[in-house]
Amino acid sequence: MLQPFEFFVGLRYTRAKRRNHFISFISLLSILGIAVGVTALITVMSVMNGFEKELRERILGAASHATITLYNEPMQDWQQLANAASDHPEVIGAAPYVEGQVMVLKGKQVTGIVVRGVLPDQEPQVSDISQKFVQGTLADLTSGSFDIVLGSALAEFLEVEIGDKITIITPEASDSLVGVIPRIKRFTVKGIFEIGMNEYDRNFALMHADDASTLLKMNSGYTGVRLQLKDMFAAREVAFDLSQQVAKDYWVTDWTRQHANYFRAVKTQKTVMFVILALIVAVAAFNIVSTLVMVVTDKQSAIAILRTMGAAPYSIMLVFLVQGALIGIIGTVLGVSGGIALASNVETIVPAIERLFETEFIDPTVYPINFLPSELDYADVWRIAILALTLTLVATLYPAWRAARTQPAEALAI
User: Fold this and answer.
1) What DSSP string runs through 200-235?
2) What is the pLDDT of residues 28-79, one digit of tens each?
3) What is the 3 state secondary structure string of 81-136?
4) DSSP track, 300-361
5) Cα separation of 369 and 375, whole Å?
6) Beta bridge partners of 173
7) How far apart are CA 374 and CA 137, in angstroms?
8) Cα dist from 412 to 82, 207, 302, whole Å
9) CB-CB neighbours of 47 under 10 Å
10) At what angle do helices 300-308 and 313-344 cross, to 10 degrees?
């Protein structure tokens, strides 16, 4: 059992004397190294958590938790399928959709986009895109009007405003007396939305499902049914359950498969960043080895006196374990405090730095989001703190073991 003298001797050895300021300086560097490493690790993990959360929320703001589509042909009776899917206890909303790829033209500006046809009264059941409008509303889309709403970045690229006309060209051509010609239709811009994710704001547009079905020659059919779930993380299990209930001609998928690359990349980056930054903590922790080795060498005579006074080898070992543990605990506490403070204010600090240096750290045309989010997870904080303390104790074992092997006669004879 740890005796009081072992704790107080270890604490005294942590403080500097006039002749061993260098050892105390190395101890201070070890503390600061651990503190900086833990702070950086907590901050980066929080940013990665925030990035994953923002990415998930923005994708699912325009996408859906799960979809049911019919192989190779339009779906005519969507209501029956939606009702059957709604019987599942996890499904809280269902709405049909029509989706396809087209070219959009305005003046000299041409680009390819994805258009989705929706029923304005049904769409709020499966997405929150109706809450993302900066101009107009989803209800402005009416059947047969051939109106369209665009993402903010797409509207900026095409240089259009509410009421402007744009031309849409579909990939399917039509036969005519003069040969095969592309199918072209004029649409009126009725609204502009901004999801905050460049993939959707730049390459996505909405129209009424009836107009989309006519445009894409689907004979008043639909691409499929989109579903909203109580728990988005149960999407894979719900999709499997529904696939067992519907006919074999239907294909059921969920958001974890449709956007798997995004989340797999974030998970991989999070793991890699954890390993890299954990190495910083490891380097700082193992600086304790050099510190304690120097302390053991410096305290040879003191160790010998303690041994001759009856201190057992394990007591000597505990003295230096206490010293190393104190360095680790102080560094970890400072790092955890700094990490929590920094992670909690990243969204304020980073914009301030951007304004100060007149720069932009995150380019929205390159990254899915245009700011640095943060989501502090205290489970991560505990794991990082335990990791730092464990590395510290491991680094302390060898010097403490070496001190315990000190022979009094040999040490006093030096």
Assistant:
1) HHHHEEEEEHHHHHHHTT-TT-BSEEEEEES-GGGH
2) 788 888 888 899 889 988 888 888 888 777 777 777 888 988 887 788 888 8
3) HHHHHHCCCCEEEEEEEEEEEEEEEECCEEEEEEEEEECCCCHHHCCCHHHCEEEC
4) HHHHHHHHHTT--HHHHHHHHHHHHHHHHHHHHHHHHHHHHHHHHTHHHHHHHHHHHHT--S
5) 15
6) 182
7) 31
8) 87, 90, 9
9) 22
10) 130
Tokens of 329: 């605990």
CA separation, residue 284 to residues 12, 41, 71, 206, 327 (Å): 22, 13, 58, 54, 10
- Residue pair 155/161 in contact (Cβ under 8 Å)? The answer is yes
| Cα–Cα distance measured from residue 286 to residue 282, given in angstroms and rounded to the nearest whole number | 6
Residue type (1 letter), 96: P
3-state secondary structure of 253: strand
Q: Strand pairing partners for 106?
A: 109
| Tokens standing for residue 69 | 């589509």
- Tokens, residue 53: 């959360």
CB of 107 within 8 A of CB of 157? no
**Which comes out higher in pLDDT, residue 317 or 214?**
214
Phi, psi at residue 150, to the nearest 5°?
A: -115, 155
- Which backbone phi and psi does 165 adopt, to 5 degrees? -100, 140
Domain spans, the chain: 4-58+262-413, 65-258
334 and 35 Cβ atoms separated by less than 8 Å: yes
Please check whether residue 66 is in contact with residue 95, taking contact to mean a CB–CB distance below 8 angstroms.
no
The model's pTM is: 0.70
369 HSE (CA, 13 A, CB side): 18
